[in-house]
Batch of 2 targets.
Target 1
Amino acid sequence: GAVVSQHPSWVICKSGTSVKIECRSLDFQATTMFWYRQFPKQSLMLMATSNEGSKATYEQGVEKDKFLINHASLTLSTLTVTSAHPEDSSFYICSAGRGQGYNEQFFGPGTRLTVL
Amino acid sequence: QKEVEQDPGPLSVPEGAIVSLNCTYSNSAFQYFMWYRQYSRKGPELLMYTYSSGNKEDGRFTAQVDKSSKYISLFIRDSQPSDSATYLCASLRNQGGKLIFGQGTELSVKP
């Protein structure tokens, strides 16, 4: 149990276009979903936290107008990178939190974004 | 100073060796401690978690937390080539809080 999927697994786009990444919890309802970014050989950096039906909470330095997060249901969250630029190229990973107690997070397989 | 520090390695060991991976943290408010394994171009997979100080064992893996010295360890016994991956430690201040990750240690187990 506790499977999280992401789609697409990789995407290449032209500079200036927008890209949407989906994150789904397949076999549980996620109270909270998280979006991370990871550059090569670096750790995961939290971008934002989202709860179903409410606005996402962004980490300091993350542009909320550039990285739009929608948490439409307890099993789906989307990240849209608007007007993407080459410096946005990275590995984007979502995770879904389960339960009210210990906040166990299950990670998706990640999405590799390359902006040309 | 980073809240969670981890030696990035790389660490290379022969098959069958005991592997010791370590992290230190600076925030005494951290209560939950996790170890994740991440294969190349994949998302992290939760291996172990512990609450407060103590040891936890699961098969070949043992997680250890020493809150007095703010030290987190993961031991892998009888290491296998399939254990080759990046291992990330992470800490959590409280329920509902955000995970703070270490940089990750790249481990290579040679046949």
Target 2
Amino acid sequence: DGGITQSPKYLFRKEGQNVTLSCEQNLNHDAMYWYRQDPGQGLRLIYYSQIVNDFQKGDIAEGYSVSREKKESFPLTVTSAQKNPTAFYLCASTPGTANTGELFFGEGSRLTVL
Amino acid sequence: QQQVKQSPQSLIVQKGGISIINCAYENTAFDYFPWYQQFPGKGPALLIAIRPDVSEKKEGRFTISFNKSAKQFSLHIMDSQPGDSATYFCAASRGSGNTGKLIFGQGTTLQVKP
């Protein structure tokens, strides 16, 4: 089945540690996105990539980094510079030329910083 | 100008009732308005979307009403069922191709009581 796989589903880290969240898709989609979800704040865009080896900052990119070395993969690193990293992180993708506007989401990774 | 304001934050409806969630936007350049449904522990999924050339779109029990002059749109869930209990997000963007530029509302948690 095609889809987006995020791992790990739950992650606990100590303050000051960098963590990397994995996102893999087998939908052959060109564009990939990372969103952060906090209660009462909706979904906020962290980074997005429309093509391999290229990515753009979203609205809340500070304290995060990404890479896009392969079309299928778009990992997100939450660095120690992120002041409030505890959140639910969602990865999404969209096709390129056949984009109907629908975002396809993974099941999310919940990060808790102790 | 970039905000999408969603209300209410939470909603409790009896089975068989009508659930209504409202959103308001400011940017008149927005021309694509999707609604996403998210079940606990899962990623959001596209429910229904509308463009401003129509005032209403219906898919099964779900209807989007759109008021361009008031810059408001709403989701109506007719004959609400316990299985509809989820978090709903409205969103807006300029052009369906700009999914990376989707602005999400704050979310509404719907509980349908049996």
